[in-house]
Write a structure and sequence with these properties.
mainly beta, seven-stranded mixed beta sheet, four-stranded antiparallel beta sheet, about 50% strand
Length: about 120
């Protein structure tokens, strides 16, 4: 089993920045490709970004490309999502997810094996 714990959410004004963190435990971190998803009220969960086990490959949803950056520190078993130039439409619960032996091309929620509890990000206009 893999446990994922997100942190770093909060309230920010439009144009601001936030950095989300997700700490993993339970399996060697290098066996896991990682992703971030988000879900707004009344909407389906949507892909945000993903990163390969080494960190050498990343992939982004068009809505966040150029504004968000996913990275990982395998020594600390942690994946990050740096969010800049935030917009009100980025308001969602953000979830960290892990897929065993996956790649950065895992972009569908049902491809992921483990999920965190989510952290709320609210962007005010």
């Amino acid at each position: 089993q893999v446990q994922l714990v997100e942190s770093g959410g909060g309230l920010v004004q439009a144009g601001g920045s936030l950095r989300l963190s997700c700490a993993a435990s339970g399996r060697p971190f290098s066996t896991l490709a990682m992703g971030w998803f988000r879900q707004a009220p009344g909407k389906e969960r949507e892909f945000v970004a993903s990163i390969s086990w080494s960190g050498g490959s990343t992939f982004y949803a068009d809505a966040v490309k150029g504004r968000f950056t996913i990275s990982r520190d395998n020594a600390k078993n942690t994946v990050f999502l740096q969010m800049t130039t935030l917009k009100p439409e980025d308001t969602s619960v953000y979830y960290c997810a892990a897929v065993l032996y996956g790649t950065s091309r895992n972009v569908k929620a049902n491809e992921y094996d483990y999920w965190g509890q989510g952290t709320q990000v609210t962007v005010s206009s």
